[in-house]
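Predict the 3D structure for this chain.
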Amino acid sequence: MNVALALNPPAASAAGANPIIIFERKPMAGHTTMPPRKQTTPYGDVTLTSRWMRDRYHLVATGPISALRWMFPKHDGSMEAVSPHACRHVFSPAPAPITVERELRRVCAVWQARWDERGQDTQDGLAASSPSQSSSIQNLGQLFDHLYADRMTKVAKSTTDRDRYRLLLWRTELGNDRLLANLRPDDIADALARIGKRTSPSTANTSLGVLKTYLTWAANMGLLRDLSHKTVRRLKEPASLRHRREWWTTAQFEQALAIAQQDPHQPTATLLVACGCLLGLRPEEIIMQRWEDLDLDAKDPQTGEPRPVCHVVPHSGWTPKDGEARDIPISARLLAILTPLRRKAGFLLMNEPHRKGRPRGGTGWKYRYNPTKVWRRMMEAFTKAGGKVITMYGMRHTFASNLLINNVSDVKVARWLGHGDTRMLHRHYGHLLSYDDDINATANPKEQG
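Done. Predicted structure below.
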């Protein structure tokens, strides 16, 4: 029999009330193979493990009561006591049942990223603002001015440029003089709808994310009474634009590759386009890809035929988005591009000699290399040549789209992209799988006769 500790709400705890001990029988659960993860909070470290319960995976957070309260502010039920100073909270990590452990790890990483962001907001706020500074912030304009100036030293310039435009939308719709104490979720929702009409639902939703970042910081500093602003929902985007993905056909890729090969910054420009379109790597994965992780000489152990492969692996403190390594086979076309350019070691993409590049100094975000200027230069040249302009992320869509329209298994494509299953693939590329000749399998009897 387990002992469950029902946590008192903050008001009751402040009054000195003792916690209520509840005796209840817990269902049996089996351990899984996901290694324990550590989550750092302002109130101590919490251990995250996994359990298989009935028909799905659950996550288990074990640590100090105050840390669990911070991690799960909306939870007001009982938590199981495991020691006089620690509790355990079992929770379902996603609305839909998770039955694949790789998907469980991915979702766990998403939870941890959110907690890390909240923790960083708290630390940044305490480090950047003295009590007198934070107490002087009373309205929305003062909050925007103060935190924007502080974030300029901590995030990329592209992020602060984006923030400036998004905050201007909120300054216009809510007003700089809007008191933080009087700001309600309904006010934000109404302003969000107006921004959506002025610009687009996509722009409005991005602006909402920026506003929530600022208001969460304010809540952590005690400038807001609660985190009710997080209940404001994003606008619904038109179906025609919701999952729109621009990509190149094989012929368009070859045209873009020819433009890249003419760019003065070689071999970076060529490798950027080739690895993006023929490996499906995310931009940050291309930036962090190393020559020593490309096994161009690999052979099939049974037949001895060439089987070159790209290993996407964590290194130098960096991990892929899903947190796990994966292997992607290298096509004959890509091998022909890589072979004359190959080096023994080092990163594929290198800085232009006349540019200082990254990383930035100070305590801000650090980037090994930023290929944005090279990409813009190539797209300008491609536009003049009559080509189709896409984003760097569009190269990943090019990889997936060209494989799917050539009847490559969706399971294989999802694995090469680093997805835990095919759901994301069908959501974004389902239109490419819409028609199938198997629909004619049941022919008209007259036609058969």
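The two ends are 71 Å apart (CA to CA).
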